[in-house]
Structures are given as structure tokens and as C-alpha cells.
TrEMBL record:
<keyword id="KW-0396">Initiation factor</keyword>
<keyword id="KW-0547">Nucleotide-binding</keyword>
<comment type="function">
    <text>One of the essential components for the initiation of protein synthesis. Protects formylmethionyl-tRNA from spontaneous hydrolysis and promotes its binding to the 30S ribosomal subunits. Also involved in the hydrolysis of GTP during the formation of the 70S ribosomal complex.</text>
</comment>
<keyword id="KW-0342">GTP-binding</keyword>
<comment type="similarity">
    <text>Belongs to the TRAFAC class translation factor GTPase superfamily. Classic translation factor GTPase family. IF-2 subfamily.</text>
</comment>
<keyword id="KW-0648">Protein biosynthesis</keyword>
<feature type="binding site">
    <location>
        <begin position="78"/>
        <end position="85"/>
    </location>
    <ligand>
        <name>GTP</name>
    </ligand>
</feature>
<feature type="domain" description="Tr-type G">
    <location>
        <begin position="69"/>
        <end position="236"/>
    </location>
</feature>
<dbReference type="GO" id="GO:0005525">
    <property type="term" value="F:GTP binding"/>
</dbReference>
<keyword id="KW-0963">Cytoplasm</keyword>
<dbReference type="GO" id="GO:0005829">
    <property type="term" value="C:cytosol"/>
</dbReference>
<dbReference type="GO" id="GO:0003924">
    <property type="term" value="F:GTPase activity"/>
</dbReference>
<feature type="region of interest" description="G-domain">
    <location>
        <begin position="72"/>
        <end position="220"/>
    </location>
</feature>
<protein>
    <recommendedName>
        <fullName>Translation initiation factor IF-2</fullName>
    </recommendedName>
</protein>
<feature type="binding site">
    <location>
        <begin position="178"/>
        <end position="181"/>
    </location>
    <ligand>
        <name>GTP</name>
    </ligand>
</feature>
<feature type="binding site">
    <location>
        <begin position="124"/>
        <end position="128"/>
    </location>
    <ligand>
        <name>GTP</name>
    </ligand>
</feature>
<dbReference type="GO" id="GO:0003743">
    <property type="term" value="F:translation initiation factor activity"/>
</dbReference>
Length: 360
């Protein structure tokens, strides 16, 4: 148990000896000890349990007839250096208008592209740590995972980890088989490695979409976008744009303008002037910008926005929602701040307890 707790701590999770942890976290620990975990619960069983807490929170009281299609939110995962960032760059350049070529600097950790008149939101969480952290805090922000695997390197430890995360989040997975331009690429080998992981490519009679791409030479990018839209079509990717906004904090920082938060609107529409509570902070949306730094007045579902006006910096993974009044927002933020303080104390105490046990 001490070794398990050490690994948990190493991953930023301060668990006590008899604490329940989620599958994803357990899977991570199992990996560290050289096991290949498999989740026992079939996905069908989960459906029967009804909507998740988060779903209830985001869509509480939602009239199904008010739901409208929204752009899918896609996360790109994979082993170090397999080409996630290059792939995201290639996707962006495919879609960014000519006058913006060269200005590739990413304003926020999330952006939206349009392909054949349809929008796709990408979350740029290059390391899966950020993704894991958000998941550990209960945030479910993505609809589809793109797993990048380099054709020369094949399946690597972090490929497996990323896959475990995507499965734990029950995301449909599309494989982007990258670097096919390399002379050392061995597509057949990677295809069979994928099959071994239960990702049997369609070409092999399975149902996993594997798109062969070269992010560097921008080959297969359109096929990948089409695959994403195809998968999105088979899912109920919907939200109600005509209600106050609810969503998740993707990232936050302070710059000369004060606290700046990148928010992903998941349901409802966020408007300039709205009062929001984001985790343990609150404020009035003074200004909003899209992923290219252009000012926005309104942000419908699946839009990533940079927001100014919060009193403090929220944490990645915090939920945000529109409040009725400034007073209500402040009270809620203060209650949460106090609760977080309390939890930190509890965690510190269980940590001290752990050290005592380790010494004993
Ligand atoms: P981390 O963020 O460190 O996990 O890496 P990453 O997955 O974002 O990989 P990145 O995009 O930084 O690419 C790593 C290296 O692979 C870079 O030198 C890229 O130029 C190269 N690379 C990426 N895609 C391709 C490709 O399609 N073909 C070739 N030949 N090289 C590529
Ligand atoms: Mg990268």
C-alpha cells in the first residue's frame, strides 16, 4: 500500500490508505507497476446508470426540444514527440485565412476551425497531465479523442496511457497514424500493435478509424477532419444555446490586464456583461476574445473564449456558470474558497499521517 500511495503522490493525488479512486487513476498506478489494466465495466452498463453528475449540472432542467447541434470538442493525445503540436499546427493552417498565415501564435489553449462549413473545437492539451488533472477533478469537456501514434516509433508507454485516459473518459477514439512520410515508417507494424490494444483498424475488419497522416508535410489532414466530423455525426453532440452559459475553465493566468481565463462554453451562450462564478472566483465578463484575439460579444456552445473581468485566477478544470447577481456570485465564490481551504487542510493532515505510517 505504501508503494501505491507513493505512486499516487507522485501523480499529484494525495490519497489515504482506504480511499476510493477512480478507474483512470487506478489504471495509471497499475501501469507504473507494469500491468495492463482493463476496465471491467462494459460501457453499456454505464449508460444504464443515467447521466453523470457533471451532465446533470451542465444540462440540469434542460428541455430536450431546445437542444441544438454544437461543434464537437476534440482532444489530441499521444506519446511525446509523436507530433501532436505539429498536427494541431497543420490543422490550424489548413483553416486559418491567408492573411493570418505566419501569425501562428496560439492565443489560448483551445481553438476552433471550420471545415466544409462545420466547426470543430480543438483542445490543445499537449501533455496528457493537464487532461488527467481536469478529469480527476471531474471535468468532462471533450467529445472525441485523437490519438497520435508515430509510424516510425509505434505504440509507446504514453500511447497506452493516453488510450487508458480516453477510454476512462469513454471518448470515441480516432487514431492519427503520423509521420508516414518517414522512410523508417512501418505502418503494418503499428496497425498490428493497435489491434493488440483493442484498436482494430477498419482495414483489418475492426471499427477503429485510423487515418494516415504526415503533420509535417500536411498529408491526410482533411481526411482526419472528415473522420472527426463523421464520428461527431454518430453522437448526440448538442446543447441549448438559449440559456445562461455553463462550462469549464481550460486555463487561467494573470497578465497586465489582470486575471485572464480561457473558458470553454459547454451549454448556453456566454455574453459580455454576464456575471460568472468560476470555481472560487467571480466577476463580470468585461471583455471576451476568440482564439485569434478578436473581440466577441457572444459565445455559443463549444466556443473557447478568453475572458477578462474575474476577481482572481480560477483553476483549470473548475466549472463556471452565470450567476443571477453579483452578490450571489460573490457568496458562492467565497463559500467555495473556504471549502477548498478546508480540503487542503484535510489533505495536509492525511499526508502527515502517511509520513508517520511510513516511518513506523
Ligand atoms: P510533445 O509536445 O513533446 O509531447 O511532442 P509532440 O507530440 O507535440 O510532437 P511535436 O509536434 O513537437 O513533433 C516532434 C518532432 O516530430 C518534431 O521535430 C516534428 O517536426 C516532428 N514531426 C511531427 N510530425 C511529423 C511528420 O509527420 N513527419 C516527420 N517527418 N516529422 C514529424
Ligand atoms: Mg507538443
Amino acid at each position: 500500500p505504501i508503494d501505491v500511495i507513493k505512486v499516487l503522490m507522485h501523480n499529484g493525488i494525495m490519497a489515504s490508505i482506504n480511499q476510493r479512486i477512480d478507474y483512470e487513476t487506478a489504471a495509471l498506478v497499475a501501469h507504473e507497476f507494469g500491468f495492463e489494466p482493463r476496465e471491467q465495466r462494459p460501457p453499456e452498463a454505464v449508460e444504464e446508470e443515467g447521466p453523470s453528475l457533471l451532465w446533470q449540472r451542465l444540462y440540469a432542467g434542460e428541455d430536450p426540444s431546445k437542444l441544438k447541434p454544437r461543434p464537437p470538442v476534440v482532444v489530441v493525445l499521444g506519446h511525446v514527440d509523436h507530433g501532436k503540436t505539429t498536427l494541431l499546427d497543420a490543422i490550424r493552417r489548413t483553416n486559418v485565412a491567408a492573411q493570418e498565415v505566419g501569425q501562428i501564435t496560439q492565443r489560448i489553449g483551445a481553438y476552433q476551425v471550420e471545415y466544409n462549413g462545420r466547426k470543430i473545437t480543438f483542445l490543445d492539451t499537449p501533455g496528457h497531465e493537464a487532461f488527467t488533472q481536469m478529469r480527476a477533478r471531474g471535468a468532462q469537456v471533450t467529445d472525441i479523442a485523437v490519438l497520435v501514434v508515430a509510424a516510425d516509433d509505434g505504440v509507446m508507454p504514453q500511447t497506452r496511457e493516453a488510450l487508458a485516459h480516453a477510454r476512462a473518459a469513454r471518448l470515441p477514439i480516432i487514431v492519427a497514424l503520423n509521420k508516414i512520410d518517414k522512410p523508417t515508417a512501418n505502418i503494418e507494424r503499428v496497425m498490428s500493435q493497435l489491434a493488440e490494444l483493442g484498436l482494430v483498424p477498419q482495414e483489418y475488419g475492426g471499427d477503429t478509424i485510423v487515418v494516415k497522416v504526415s503533420a509535417k508535410q500536411r498529408i491526410g489532414i482533411e481526411d482526419l477532419l472528415e473522420a472527426i466530423l463523421l464520428v461527431a455525426e454518430t453522437r448526440e453532440i448538442k446543447a441549448n444555446p438559449d440559456r445562461p452559459a455553463v462550462g469549464t475553465v481550460i486555463d487561467a493566468r494573470v497578465d497586465r490586464r489582470g486575471p485572464v481565463a480561457t473558458l470553454l462554453v459547454q451549454n448556453g451562450t456566454l455574453k459580455q456583461g454576464d456575471i460568472i462564478v468560476a470555481g472560487a472566483t467571480y466577476g463580470r465578463v468585461r471583455a471576451m476574445f476568440d482564439d485569434r484575439g478578436r473581440p466577441l460579444k457572444k459565445a455559443p456552445p463549444s466556443t473557447p473564449v478568453e475572458v477578462l473581468g474575474l476577481s482572481d485566477v480560477p483553476e483549470a478544470g473548475d466549472l463556471f456558470e452565470v450567476a443571477e447577481s453579483e452578490r450571489q456570485a460573490r457568496e458562492l465564490a467565497e463559500r467555495r474558497a473556504a471549502e477548498r481551504q478546508r480540503q487542503r487542510q484535510v489533505r495536509r493532515m492525511s499526508l502527515e499521517d502517511l509520513y508517520r505510517r511510513m516511518q513506523a
